[in-house]
Amino acid sequence: MAKRKAKRVKTGEARTGEEGPEMADYRALSDFRYALRRFLAFSGDAARGVGLTPQQHQALLAILGHAGETPMTVGALAERLLLKHHSTVELVDRLGELDLVRRATATDDRRKVTLRLTDKARKLMTSLSSAHLEELRRIRPVFATLIDRLDV
Fold this sequence. Notes:
Structural class: mainly alpha
Helix content: 55-70%
Order of helices and strands: HHEHHEEH
Number of strands: 3
Strand content: 5-15%
Low-confidence stretches: 1-14
Radius of gyration: 21 Å
Strand order of the largest sheet: 1-3-2
Number of helices: 5
Mean pLDDT: 88
Oligomer: single chain
Largest sheet: 3 strands, antiparallel
């Protein structure tokens, strides 16, 4: 029985046919995952360099980058970080102890707790985000090439 070659498309449509990924696809996926892990290692090292865990850094970034008319809540932060609510509460507790996050009861619903960054956290985030943006500018061509190799 002859193998039928799947047609590759760049529109986000699924590949047709019965055969699976080709060896080049596996290589591209492997290289892409490697590049992601290298960036995450850079990010973790940068966070630890200013006294934060990578998860604390991600939480601060999520709060700072929250694009909404309402402040970030613990529930929204849990969703953004893909954590359980109780784990997020513990994380926010630690950030509060470090004087990086302040809690407030929401004015519209006393059951909700809103979060905001302290000035100390904003200064840390300015430094960390500048370093991350510089690194992303440096590695952008690598990711662009990898995305093209994935041909998705």
